[in-house]
């Protein structure tokens, strides 16, 4: 709902109004206003909407990369497995934030650069999970029986392997999403994400740092809480899906 409201809302709702600078939270401005008189409620909604859009796009692309490489690693022979595992180890050996900054810097500031940076850095963990699931199901008796009955690899994959991997893939996709949102916010906070003119939670938090010491606590409190709630919500959804598909994983 936040994403939809943010996409269709008028820019006038969070426009500049110097006559309303630094208004504390009140009935007319529940989240207060900033140093340019912009309504913080609508700026936060718009910023969170932008983060969700980037998170969805990046998570979808990253999960497809992970699914493809995981299946290829498990089914493509030893050489493909070694190459993909080497790439996974290399990516996991470098801190996420370093790769995010480098890729975003090369792509240029903006939503596209952030989306690409997040998408190409979040696939290694899910790739390993998918690879393990494919290796497990390939040794199952019903899969071996399907091959002995003359079924083609494509039919075996469609009827047995993909249905087995799909729940893990869906859980991984949902759990990627909060990480994508947090890393988008971190990039923008550090100045490598959205430009200053685009409402984004990271940018809002970055701007608020200058005014915290002067008592303008609402500039960072409400955007930070909204970001935290969104991340925790999707993390909880992912955990519930994991427990639904894997009942024995609740205490892990």
From TrEMBL:
Tell me the keywords, alphabetical order.
Cell membrane, Membrane, Transmembrane, Transmembrane helix, Transport
Fetch the Pfam families from UniProt: BPD_transp_1
From what superkingdom does this record's organism come? Bacteria
Instruction: Give the species.
Output: Candidatus Allocopromorpha excrementigallinarum
- Domain ABC transmembrane type-1 per the UniProt entry, residue ranges: 48-238
Matching PROSITE patterns: ABC_TM1
Please identify the protein, giving its name as recorded.
ABC transporter permease
Where is it mostly found? membrane
Biological-process GO terms, alphabetical:
transmembrane transport
Q: Which InterPro entries match?
A: BP-dependent_transpt_permease, MetI-like, MetI-like_sf
Q: Which family does it belong to?
A: Belongs to the binding-protein-dependent transport system permease family.
Q: Which residue spans traverse the membrane?
A: 48-71, 83-103, 161-181, 187-205, 217-237
The membrane topology of this protein is: Multi-pass membrane protein
Where is the protein localized? Answer: Cell membrane
GO cellular component annotations, sorted alphabetically? plasma membrane
Renumbered to this chain, the signal peptide range is: none
